[in-house]
Design brief:
This protein has two domains: about 130 residues, translation initiation factor eif-2b, domain 1 (Four Helix Bundle (Hemerythrin (Met), subunit A)), CATH 1.20.120.420; about 200 residues, Translation initiation factor eif-2b, domain 2 (Rossmann fold). About 40% of the residues lie in helices and about 15% in strands. Helix 2 packs antiparallel against helix 5, helix 3 runs antiparallel to helix 4 and helix 5 packs across helix 6. It starts with 5 loop residues before the first strand and ends with a helix. About 45% of the residues are buried. 5-S-methyl-1-O-phosphono-5-thio-D-ribulose binds next to helix 2 and strand 9.
Length: about 350
């Protein structure tokens, strides 16, 4: 059974500190909105659906100390807290989706007092955990229909249990395949510079007893050339209205290789990762991260300190390279613009 990534525990949010993996499975308690923002920024909690849930809890932590009955003041404070949490990371749309969901909830229940609204926000954040579990199970069920016995898959970054509340998106069909007794194998891209593949995906697959092989990112082309891969399955941070998809840096290269070697390339993501307000991938904001992650990642100096660095955390895969988008409501196929509109209704 996978471990819950995030939960509410009396007066605090309990998360696994993912920066400590694979060395230790350490849980930490988060009690303030400031600490939640920092946890999201520093990737203690990461992965689009997980940071959506974290954002909802972060918002609750930010308004829970609000005193008094003034509804206008409460609303002003809520807006401030939402903007503060939204400022943590720009690419994964789930974070903004969660904040907007809380704001809509409060608008809908405008007659309630601030103390009632605070409780409602907490309940909504807790509800998002159960909802995410159901959604990920459905993604697993829909995605497993594409996996045949004996398949070898390749994944990039971590779109497993730890990137969601518990069950994962891209790894959900893999976990389901295992439950169904299918013989499968997963190649795991290491995922430079922060190694979410080797630190987190490799760890999760070992815990789930799923046969896995770790490769460095620059080996992906060769394993595809050697016909070791039947299918590629990755997650998403934001899917534009035309199907262009932002995911961890390196995904684009994998998708281009998949086309060259005629390997089906699939995205797995909940509908909350689809952003119909963003028309195409070139409009998706891409997070730029600290050069230190490349020059001196994990404390080891691997480049001269003064070298200029470009460190985008995500790239965008054009829709034309994507064979299908596996969601909780089914698999979206091209033409994406039309079919995304349909499913989002
Ligand atoms: O920077 P990260 O680790 O948050 O990036 C995570 C990814 O790119 C995942 O593939 C994506 O969020 C999907 S998670 C189900």
């Amino acid at each position: 059974m996978p471990v819950p990534t995030i939960s509410w525990d009396k007066n605090a949010v309990r998360i696994i500190d993912q920066t400590r993996l694979p060395l230790e499975k350490k849980f930490i308690s988060i009690k303030t909105t400031k600490d939640m923002r920092e946890a999201i920024k520093s990737l203690k909690i990461r992965g689009a659906p997980a940071i959506g849930i974290a954002a909802a809890f972060g918002i609750y932590l930010g308004i829970k100390e609000f005193k008094g009955d003034d509804k206008k003041q409460f609303r002003r404070r809520l807006d401030e807290v939402c903007s503060y949490i939204e400022g943590s990371r720009p690419t994964a749309v789930n974070l903004f989706w969660a904040a907007q969901r809380i704001e809509r909830l409060v608008s809908y229940h405008e007659k309630l007092s601030p103390s009632e609204l605070k409780q409602l926000i907490l309940q909504e954040a807790i509800l998002m955990i159960d909802e995410d579990n159901r959604v990920c199970r459905a993604i697993g069920e829909n995605g497993v229909s594409l996996i045949k016995d004996g398949y070898s898959l390749l994944t990039h970054c971590n779109a497993g249990g730890l990137a969601t509340a518990m069950y994962g998106t891209a790894l959900a069909p893999v976990f389901r395949a295992k439950e169904l007794g299918l013989n499968i194998h997963v190649f795991v891209d290491e995922t430079r510079p922060l190694f979410q593949g080797s630190r987190i995906t490799a760890w999760e697959l070992l815990e789930a007893d799923i046969p896995a092989t770790l490769i460095t990112d620059n080996m992906a082309a060769f394993v595809m050339y050697q016909k070791k891969i039947n299918m590629i399955l990755v997650g998403a941070d934001r899917i534009a209205a035309n199907g262009d998809t932002a995911n961890k840096i390196g995904t684009l290269g994998v998708a281009i290789l998949a086309k060259e070697f005629s390997i089906p390339f699939y995205i797995a993501a909940p509908l909350s990762t689809i952003d119909i307000k963003t028309p195409s991938g070139d409009k998706i904001p891409i997070e730029q991260r600290d050069p230190g992650e490349i020059i001196k990642g994990f404390g080891t100096q691997t480049a001269p300190s003064r070298i200029q660095v470009y460190n985008p955390a995500f790239d965008v895969t054009p829709a034309k390279l994507i064979k299908g988008i596996i969601t909780e409501k089914g698999i979206i196929r091209p033409p994406y613009h039309e079919n995304i509109q349909k499913i989002m209704k």
